[in-house]
Amino acid sequence: MKFSESWLRQWVDPPIATDELAEVLTMAGLEVDSVTRAAPEFHGIVVGRVQAVAPHPDADKLRICQVDVGAGEPLQIVCGAPNVQPGMHAPTAKVGAQLPSGLEIKKAELRGQESQGMLCSASELGLAEKSAGLMALDEDAEPGTDIRQYLALDDSVIEIDLTPNRGDCLGLAGIAREVAALCRVASTPLEFQAVPPEVGDSFPVLLEAPEDCPRYLGRVLRDVDPTASTPRWMVERLRRSGVRSLGPLVDVTNYVMLELGQPLHAFDLSSLRGGVVVRRARAGEHLVLLDGTELTLDEELLLIADQERPLALAGIMGGEGSGCDDSTRDVFLESAFFHPLAIVGRARRFGLHTDASHRFERGVDPALQRWGIERATQLLVEITGGRPGPVIEAESERDLPARPPISLRTGQIERLLGMSFSTEQVEEMLGRLGMRMTGGPEQWAVTPPSFRFDVSIEADLIEEIGRMHGYNHLPTARPYARLGMSPQPESVLSLARLRTALVDRGYQEAVTYSFVDPQVQASLDPGRDPIALANPISSEMSVMRTSLWPGLLGALRYNLARQQTRVRLFESGLVFLRQEGSTRQAPCLGALVCGAALPEQWGEGARKVDFFDLKGDLEAMLDFGGNLGGTRFEAARHPALHPGRCARIVRDGAEVGWIGAIHPKVEKVLDLGTEVLAFEVLLDGITRVPIPEFRELSRFPSIRRDLAVVVDETVPYQSVRDCVARAGADLVRDVDLFDIYFGRGIDPGRKSLAISLILQAESRTLTDDEVETVIRRIIGRLEGEFNATLRK
Q1: Is residue 208 a contact partner of residue 305, using CB atoms and an 8 Å limit?
Q2: Per the confidence metrics, is the pTM higher than 0.85?
Q3: pLDDT tens digits, residue range 59-70?
Q4: How far apart are CA 419 and CA 737, in angstroms?
Q5: Which helix or strand (DSSP H or E) is residue 295 part of?
Q6: Cα(639)–Cα(38) distance, rounded to whole angstroms?
Q7: Which stretches of 580-695 are assigned E, i.e. beta strand?
Q8: 317 and 339 in contact (C-beta within 8 Å)?
Q9: Strands (E) located in 396-539
Q10: Most buried of 72, 172, 392, 599, CB within 10 angstroms?
């Protein structure tokens, strides 16, 4: 919510500066995101009145203007704006003026004609992104008046970031209420009276869905002037609130929405047939919105319709066929209360988010509709000269939100806030917020005002007391709790230890959303049917993740786009899987790497990270539990990983994850532009570890033997190692691979594996005959299982 500080101070003017006002709002829960100037710095620009316009003798697109700037003789200014005309008032930069761009205005000659200044557009003053011509000022603008003074540009624009429960502050009136209560000053809202009807015309209204729309007000306005212009003061207030001026009919409804928090809509009365009906849509109906979007409707959607067709998506956006345009002479003005549950999520279904839906989803004051339509009528009559009819009101009182009293106990206030308040203090603080109280001093019955949808239980009232007193003034105290020893089983490896292991190896932890883009999900895990969200934040976040990789790759793309070429990321979290008709949440740990294997340095040459770097990091993490020997990496295929450069991770016979290089097709789809390697493991599969057991160390010497065996290229080393361990029985203590060789002297399709064997007995020193027997048995097993031969 953006608003002009000067506009707010017309409602409530506390004796504090802008920065103090921002601090007060933030500390009360209305977080101020930014405070900016209403206009950039410039000087020397005044109101000018164009007295005469003549063609330039040597340039078709230029005009020679005589401009009155309140200094006696008019200035001659050469101007190329297409809308310049006699009698027009426009900002005029005199000689010596400086524009926001830094340009200093000097006397100049344009095609042989002297120019003593410059007529300015809104964009040249920094008041608009682009302009089609000069900025037209109101006819009452006095020539020579400083433009900053005339437009009140020495103002601040405050933007607050409201939490979803504070819909009451989505209007200036609500913010003024808060400031008045926080600063203990009186609020003086602008007064406006009900506008009496001038014509007897009315338009019938029928509520067919009163549970969704229990109150609907409408009013006919005849003979509005379609050529009228929105006053400059209103245009400026809209601009400072981030709203573009689109003509008086739209501007007035936007202005009242910003002022009071009540969205309104104006229909072209000539396009309506029979009467307004508020109803649920019928399956298969169609509606084209004002932005050109064509919708196919269903029974969940609430409509504003007439007797023939849908007119608008209630509380969200009007329809194209009933909207006002430059030819509109008669208007039907709508001001309604829609139940939040009837609006929430409907706009997002169609990729929409409007100012109206933003407010109705959070809750609009159900007592505000009459004020809204009267205020809008007053402004439209003043600006367009329309003739109003009577206000038509349709209401279902039993469906309006009820505000039952809430019990508030003194003891609970002290228990939750850590301090006590007197009866007078409690009643004064809640009274400033518009709450009605009966009872006391030990217990009250408190009825919240209609605009405070967020206050429904006792804790909400206590929170309001804390806000009014000031969170920073509440006492601090150490919490009291009975502490107990939590079990730390040795057979379970903690997630914290695994995370620490990755951090120690240079990884950064990422936290990503559990809902992801369905297209990215499908490219990484095409074999699974993800769970779709009923009410997604956006179409790019509409399914629950079945893998951690979509989020990690999204974080990687973010880093790569910011010139971070060496990235190490990991994440722990839940993945969501369909299993036998139900949903299973599986805790996982995933990581990815890309870029150089080591940071740039003089001691090592540059080298890209490879599969074995990542595998080494994973093995180092798994080795914390002492069960690395039970982990196997088996060559397999995964749709998201590069064929021949990926492996299934198996632990104690069960699959626990995958590791490998991201498939080139996936890299192209995600526009990564670099090779990425990743792994993902199920935490339940790797956190169960054996309890350490003591084994007596042998007092007898060990013996090392090296073997170079030649096997087929397709034979994995792990299989060779397992075979050696089985054949060596209890005498082989360790097996290590220290060389792999392909090339001359080795048959095509074969490879040489050089392995070292450590042999040792626990009760004696091994003899040469025993060692040779074991070696022959190992060689025999390798020959039998893998057709292995000793390399000569």
Answers
A1: no
A2: no
A3: 888 999 999 999
A4: 69
A5: strand 294-296
A6: 54
A7: 582-594, 631-635, 641-651, 654-662, 676-682
A8: no
A9: 406-409, 436-439, 443-447, 508-509, 515-516
A10: 172
